[in-house]
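User: structure tokens for this one?
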Amino acid sequence: MANKASDLVNYALSQVGYCEDPKGSNKNKYAAYLDTTNWYLYKEGSRTWIHKINEYDWCSGFADCCAVKTFGLEQARKILNRPEYNNYGAVVKYSYNYLNKIGKTGKTPQYGAYIYFQNSAGLCHVGIVVSYNSDTVTTVEGNAGAGSNYVVKKTYKRLDNYIYGYGYPLYDDIKPEPTDDYKPGNIYNVTCKGPLRIRKGAGTTYDIIDDLYKGDKVLCKEVIKDKDGNTWLKIEGYTCAKYGKEVYIE
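Assistant:
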């Protein structure tokens, strides 16, 4: 049976409105279910145990449970690139890193993708993309909504700085586009500390009109190579994405 993105999305959508019980406890049916499986099976030497996640923050547990409920343990491990033992994916940064390790992350939404959010401390939240257009992305998220107690459907601006990026599960029916090269219409993150100058033209001789800093998002309208082979993106003005071996925007 094919591992279809639509099956996972439909399961996630069917859960909208669910509330943890009791409210404010972080106890929820998704973590409780995963605690009965070998999804978070840890092993150290001759000792094995289930790492139980009920009563903990559950956004990543919800996203994982959607995959396990939809595809079963074996196929869920495959599409999310999770190990059989010592799966740390209940923590958001590890959920992202498992897909990033195999090159399945990027800065553009995709149907069925996992969407990762950030705050000043780093990666902090995850949901599932159920639709998107050129301006917005719509998600289903657990441990969200009023009091962070619910499964909710939410819509964000794609340029929202809260959005860090996306992970692309290995569905059989959707193959993400390569993300190595800059493309008009895509949104990217400033990764250098800054200030990264926005200029009137694609070159350091042009006047500065504004600055960018780490974490800022830019919508690429055009990709330009200057005479020295450096890469500039046209946004409102022009900013340098790659200068020699230095990468300022990813």
